[in-house]
Fold this protein.
Amino acid sequence: MEKKIRVRFAPSPTGGLHLGGVRTVLYNYLFAKQNKGTFIVRIEDTDQNRYVDGAEDYIFDCLKWAGLEPDESPRHGGAFGPYRQSERKALYREYADKLVAEGHAYYAFDTPEDLERMRQDFKTDENPSPQYDLTIRMKMRNSLTLSPEETAALLQAGTRHVVRIKIPENRQVSFHDMIRGDVQFDTRVVDDKVLLKADGMPTYHLAVVVDDYLMQISHAFRGEEWLPSAPVHILLWEYLFGIDQMPKWAHLPLILGPQGKLSKRDGAKYGFPVFAMNWNDPKTKELTEGFREKGFLPEAFVNLLALLGWNDGSEREIFTKDELVDAFSMERVHAAGARFDYEKAKWFNHEWIKKTDAAALATPVKKLLADAGVHTADDALINVINVEERPLLPSS
Ligand code: GLU
């Protein structure tokens, strides 16, 4: 039986939502709506060190502004909750233990000093930053090198430990990416990633697989930066749930700025927004500008995002959200990076402003003016907005 279509956007609440993040939301949303499926937002907050206050609220505010609201989330409810990974902490341990029991993972008791020593001792010219992997694991302090009795005693005594995946030697693991086609990895280049941390929290690798399974995710769309993690996830799917249960995957192309991957710094340097809405970082007190505050209409924002990496095969560029729901296809997303061009973004906004009637524009314009200290009457404002649309007639 075909799986019900269930997709998810899985942000970590670590800061503002940049263009790439909102585009991931959009492609998930379009795919879900097109297939009468369910769009889920799951908050991946297992890394307590990177947690930023206010980031979760900000993400939901952005989705609301852009008109891309999920069907299930910590805010919208649903039958597969809780939707915040920190609230699911207790359920990951059993999967980690199962992996250990079946020989696919092991307990590692190395202290931070042991790990530092490892990085120094095994450093060579060819391998300047050695990883905890199959060449090194047998030289470390873990349940593969200790006797079962020693391991049991350490666990019994509550010794701090992590659980690491035991990457198999000499295996090719592969999957079919909806955008990139068949992708293959050699396990020799994959390290023994931590699955469960010393504080009992899962890492992203374990949590993403367990939750995609428990939430019955049919398709997982995420940024290209996650491609190197794919072999770890494929192995976990194979060991825990069976590879036939794995969602179909697509790794979305990077968004490129003037110099490589588009970054927050590009925004500040070149004076364009890279976040959906203004983001005030509570830690650094730094403000990153957003499209909303720059006067972009949500319709224009959604339209320009959709075209960052996708087209319908024609020259057409202007789409409403509903038209995108009909036209979108993941197979037509390009694998190569998509260049962000602010002039083009402004052109989209201009087209959308032209399409929107003056009365609807009056509210956001009034707010922008009020923010700048200018107060206007509605009818006068509507008349002024309309001027742009009317050709100036030569006076007779
Ligand atoms: N939590 C990951 C992130 O912040 C999600 C990656 C995924 O969708 O699997 O991007």
The chain has a mean pLDDT of 94.
